[in-house]
Amino acid sequence: MTDRLSFDFFGKTPKYKRKILKDVIIDRKSKYTSILWFVISKEEVESFMKDILTDSYFKKATHNTFAYRIKLENWSVLEWKNDDWEVWAGMCILRELQREDFINTIVVVTRYFGWIHLQSDRFKNVIDATKIILKENENS
Question: Which fold has domain 18-139?
């Protein structure tokens, strides 16, 4: 599901308003889905997350972790992350957004737990799921 955008701020912005890659990583029965979304305010983030969590696919997920970066009118950048009980996962997403210099962007990484504990590999999977959707955005 994609909508083409043509905004140009400092930093990178998504080429599409929204992009969803389901089951982008499958590791020992755990499945990861990535969402990239264009946002310009904290209110849009809150509305977007409400919509996501009413969708049965995401509502049934074990974790919906996310991070976002938004350029404010005073040219500062608002950053936030949410781990959704997957401790440090939100920070992994936020670090990738910072590294790639994305703004006005939220990335959600959803995990369906496969009943096998992944230990620290779960962080690698969150980082990789984030990198994949950011790379997909650039290649589109």
Answer: Ribosomal Protein S5; domain 2 (3.30.230)
